[in-house]
Design brief:
The chain is globular. Helix content is about 0%, strand content about 45%. The chain has a four-stranded antiparallel sheet with strand order 2-1-8-7, with no helix packed on it. A four-stranded antiparallel sheet has the order 3-4-5-6, with no helix packed on it. A hairpin with a 7-residue loop joins strand 12 and strand 13. The protein is mostly beta strands. This is G-type lectin S-receptor-like serine/threonine-protein kinase At1g61480. It comes from Nicotiana tabacum.
């Protein structure tokens, strides 16, 4: 994926329609400029924001807590044209087993590693992890906890606009 920061032209990754249909789906991963003109990675479902991976800090995407500083993940940010064009790439850092990373039709990024001993793919990471990871699940003034029912609550001193919220 890539982005020209001057023209904002994007190179995006698009999901398949579903597991049985390889035609283009509605989920995409894109680089975008945020209001402060910082590059961030987002997942869109159609034109709606689905999940924000956030900015790259040269070691992880800040919106993915499971990518710690020492997470040896193989992602790289490449810059050319005097900093105008940015690309993200993924390369295997040490070849121990094949890795597969893809965007599924629901808008999740899935990382799978090959288990040669058992001759099968193992799901290593799924992002986003839960409903609370999704963009704006509880609105601008809501608190979200995946294990609560309902998952959304207002901060102290606030009330929902309607009971359906």
């Amino acid at each position: 994926m890539g982005l020209n920061t001057r023209t904002e032209k994007q190179i995006i990754v698009t999901s398949c329609k579903d597991d049985n249909n390889p035609s283009l789906g509605s989920s995409t991963i894109a680089l975008q400029l945020d209001p402060q003109k910082l590059v961030q990675v987002i997942i869109l479902n159609g034109s709606s924001k689905h999940f924000r991976l956030g900015q790259w800090n040269r070691g992880s995407f800040i919106g993915v807590p499971s990518m710690t500083k020492d997470y040896n993940n193989g992602f790289q940010q490449l810059t050319n044209n005097k900093g105008e064009t940015l690309h993200f790439s993924y390369g295997i850092l040490s070849y121990s087993s094949p890795t597969l990373i893809y965007l599924d039709s629901s808008g999740a990024i899935i990382q799978m590693d090959w288990d040669a001993e058992n001759n099968k793919w193992l799901k290593m990471q799924v992002v986003p992890k839960g409903q609370c990871d999704l963009y704006n699940t509880c609105g601008p003034f809501g608190s979200c906890k995946n294990n609560d029912s309902p998952i959304c609550k207002c901060f102290k001193g606030y009330e929902p606009k309607s009971m359906s919220e």
